[in-house]
Specification:
The chain is an alpha/beta fold. The protein is 31% helix and 21% strand. An eleven-stranded mixed sheet has the order 12-11-13-10-9-8-7-6-5-14-15. The longest helix is centred in the last third of the chain and has 28 residues. It binds iron/sulfur cluster (3 copies) and zinc ion.
Length: 457
């Protein structure tokens, strides 16, 4: 150990007991180490680059705590989660699962869809989950309808309509897009019901990638679904699960593909592979794509168009949970990044609306400073640039989910992405899904299986 960086707690991968953990620097890497009295010692790589890890801390915002807590008894994080009084961040995005069935059976499914039981809540029970969301989350309320695969439910448009009528401000649907590739009328119905966008699983640009991530060649279906989204004018965030063995070399191609498909494609979310759900491997450090690895690949594969320092933590969740960049796509197809770590961290609150206003004014200030008089000449008039920025922008973000190996309760306590459960709880998305080496979860299966008698099975 070169330097101790912090103390926290974690889970034993064997028995899921809460155990103390320490984070430290060694050979310019950051590790989390923990010991279960029964099952032994675990040392896991969590970051490459100690200075970079430390620099992220400057982006930590003043937490905006939830106004109400669904769990009032004392909790030992992450036991009795839901949210409890120790939770240090409000909810920005609620994940609401409407089924655990799916029209695919991906070998790396985080939800272990199509296994063991069928969770298909009725409309009234989904209404209950929307109501829990409304009870505990401040506006603007953003819900991601998820699963399993939500489009296997013919009543998805009614679900979306119900959520909007109840007061949900923004609804996106998390999908593998297979049905949307075959059934443009269904896509249209979802849009007419109030669906705002799609969180669209898109792992690469060659068939072999889909054979590995989904067990089927889905390339043609993905491309067709994007065409359908263009026709129906539904915005899409491409979500790419990134694995060093499968598709990390396609990052640059995926960014180029997104640029060509703007404005239908609004953004890309790169999701380093996490070891939960239907993914049985015990991870080795060399197989882990930690955030700096991903950003280095983006820099390399875009030939420096986007650099590591164009990615900043959103400062909404824990600073080691996510990063985001925003860019304008210029006439020659190049990216003009609007985000830069030189802009410095936000200085005020985490309230989404305030933060967004502040972010935008920071961005415009930064563009002003970056372009200057010469820049204007080189890139056209300021007005033209602003005009272009309105429709030709691309956000690229990443959030490595935690698994049972690297889970850190400090990150969980700052989490702002929560799964709403049928029993009235809001649980950090990672924590909801984490499972032991034996497939036991603390929350997902333990809760959903109880409700699996709901609906058809
Ligand atoms: S993750 Fe948050 S809500 Fe859940 S137990 Fe920990 S502190 Fe409480
Ligand atoms: S990863 Fe998504 S598409 Fe694949 S089986 Fe799981 S829920 Fe279905
Ligand atoms: S879901 Fe996981 S990775 Fe994302 S913000 Fe929450 S704790 Fe962090
Ligand atoms: Zn143990």
């Amino acid at each position: 150990m070169d330097e101790k960086l912090g103390e926290s707690s974690s889970l034993c991968p064997e028995c899921l007991k809460v155990i103390p953990a320490v984070k430290y620097a060694e050979n310019d890497n950051v590790y989390l180490e923990k010991t279960c009295p029964e099952h032994g010692n675990y040392k896991v790589l969590i970051w490459r680059g100690v200075a970079d890890y430390k620099s992220m801390k400057a982006y930590a915002c003043v937490p905006s705590r939830p106004e109400k807590y669904a769990v009032t008894k004392e909790a030992t994080c992450p036991v009795d989660c839901g949210l409890c009084k120790d939770h240090a961040q409000h909810t920005c995005l609620v994940v609401l699962e409407v089924t655990n069935d799916c029209n695919l059976k991906c070998p790396i499914c985080f939800a272990s869809a199509n296994e063991r039981y069928h969770f298909n809540p009725t409309m009234e029970q989904i209404r209950g989950m929307f109501q829990t969301t409304i009870d505990y989350v401040n506006h603007p309320i953003c819900v991601q309808i998820s699963g399993g695969e939500p489009t296997i439910r013919d009543d998805l448009p009614e679900i979306i309509k119900m959520g909007k009528e109840m007061g949900i401000d923004y609804i996106e649907v998390n999908t593998n897009a297979v049905r949307f590739s075959q059934d443009i009328d269904f896509l249209r119905k979802c849009k007419e019901a109030g669906m705002d966008s799609l969180y669209f699983s898109f792992d690469g640009l060659t068939s072999d990638v889909y054979m590995k991530t989904c067990g089927r060649d889905l390339l043609a279906a993905k491309l067709k679904a994007i065409e359908n989204c263009r026709e129906v004018e539904v915005g899409v965030t491409l979500v790419t699960v990134v694995s060093p063995d499968i598709n990390i070399h396609q990052i640059g191609d995926i960014i180029n593909f997104a640029k060509k498909n703007v404005p239908t494609v609004k953004g890309i979310h790169f999701q380093p592979l996490s070891y939960f759900g239907r993914f049985p491997i015990i991870p080795k450090d060399e197989n882990r794509t930690v955030l700096p690895d991903l950003l280095k690949e983006i820099e390399k594969q875009t030939k420096g168009e986007l650099r590591m320092d164009n990615f900043i933590p959103t400062s909404c969740t824990n600073v080691h949970c996510d990063v985001k960049s925003m860019s304008v796509i210029m006439e020659d197809g190049s990216l003009f990044p609007l985000t830069h770590r030189a802009m410095g961290p936000p200085k005020d609150t985490c309230c989404v609306a305030t933060k967004t206003r502040k972010e935008i004014s920071d961005l415009w200030r930064y563009i002003d400073e970056s372009l200057g008089a010469d820049g204007e000449e080189a890139k056209g008039s300021w007005d033209e640039f602003i005009q272009r920025a309105r429709t030709n922008y691309l956000t690229i973000s990443s959030m490595p989910f935690q698994d049972v190996w690297n889970v850190d309760t400090e990150r969980l306590k700052g989490c702002c992405i929560h799964t709403v459960t049928p029993d009235g709880k809001l649980i950090p998305f990672c924590l909801f899904n984490i499972n032991s080496v034996h497939g036991k979860t603390l929350y997902r299966h333990e809760i959903l299986e109880k409700y699996a008698k709901w609906g058809s099975s």
